[in-house]
Amino acid sequence: MRVFKFGGASVNSAPAVRNMAAIVGRYCDDALVVVVSAMGKTTNLLEQLVPGVNTLDEHPALLQQTKDYHMGIVRQLFTDAAHPVYADLERLFSQLQRQSSLPPTTYNYDYSQTVCFGELISTTIVSHYLNSIGLENRWVDIRQIIRTDNQHREGLVDFTATCRNARAMLLSDSPRLVVTQGFIAGSADGHTSTLGREGSDYSASILSYCLDADSMTIWKDVPGFLNADPKYFPDTVKIEQIPYNEAIELAYYGASVIHPKTVKPIQNKNIQLHIKSFLNPDAPGSVVGPFPTIRPLTPLYIFKKNQTLLSVLPKDFSFIAEDNLQTIFAVLAKLNIRVNLMQNTALSFSLCIDDSPMLLDQLRDNLQNQFHLRYNQGLQLITIRYYTQDIIDRIVGSSTILLQQRTRTTTQLVIQ
Ligand code: ASP
Ligand code: MG
After folding, report:
1. Which of 101, 156, 271, 416 shows its CA 20 to 30 Å from the CA of 22?
2. Pocket of ligand 1, candidates 49, 119, 198, 219: which has the most ligand atoms within 8 Å of its Cβ, to mutate?
3. What is the mean pLDDT of residues 340-363?
């Protein structure tokens, strides 16, 4: 059994869907589970339709944009206007419209009930398309399989329940090709939850773990795991082999090629993770596995944009570490905020988080009684592994360093 994950870019147009179908067609002699994300940038669009984010009069245009985008693709893939895909999509679009016009409850709950439509729509299209070209498959609602707690946005996975469901629902014989959604899951309270942005990689890795997959493959628009993002670096080096622990570190620092939670499940079952180009499926790509070091050994650069550097200072001059960290971490955990970098002095705690005006407001609400808060937004967090001073100087250039940390192998800089 193999598990494939196709991200938004691999299904963002009709030719892209045809291309992914051709890749599936080459591998589906054996049992294959295909995990698909929302098409293109659909999730960004759906985030605007979460109740309470925009005013209701902005919704019709956003809904129309979502619909036009998908229908443009569907009309190229299915020339028969009576094809059942059209009725299935009509139903999903009207459910989305209903969901987005509900009165707001809590953001994390509303978020998942709304953005899940991206994956429900994409897999409906892909599954029908594969069937239409003779790749007989079963569309599976992953919310019946991946079980999370009730956090709804970035739900915590219950592996015992999930694996029981996965084996019961995915190991039947007919048909052995399964199409299902990445990113979304079912919460313990019976609603939809999500696994965090870009979480489809994690979905595929959860299923690989539960089904003891022979391998997992993420199909990307890059040739493999590169030492830097080609958007910022003209000369990138492809890493051929990456040890599991190195892959976790890199993903945690923000290497966007894989979601940070992806590696643990496959490492725990010693499953190899292939990262391959959907534009060049015959090229070897990169492999994450039980290797001693990365190969080739080369400096690695990870840029995280849109960062907020926040300093939290106790109003009563009490020490941060002894008296206050517990309070601060409890608030961060409650609000589900991921800290990308942290550092403390006697009287201040600095943390680097992704820019989010809404979460920053909530942080302020929760902390301002006890603490002064100062922050800078729109910063960049740069991580360099296997750095030299020369490399740091070149990267920082004339920017201001607001915070820096350094170990023997890794340096991290917050710059303005
Ligand atoms: N569609 C979701 C997102 O864009 C999940 C994913 O792409 O992995 O974040
Ligand atoms: Mg995506």
Report:
1. 271
2. 198
3. 93
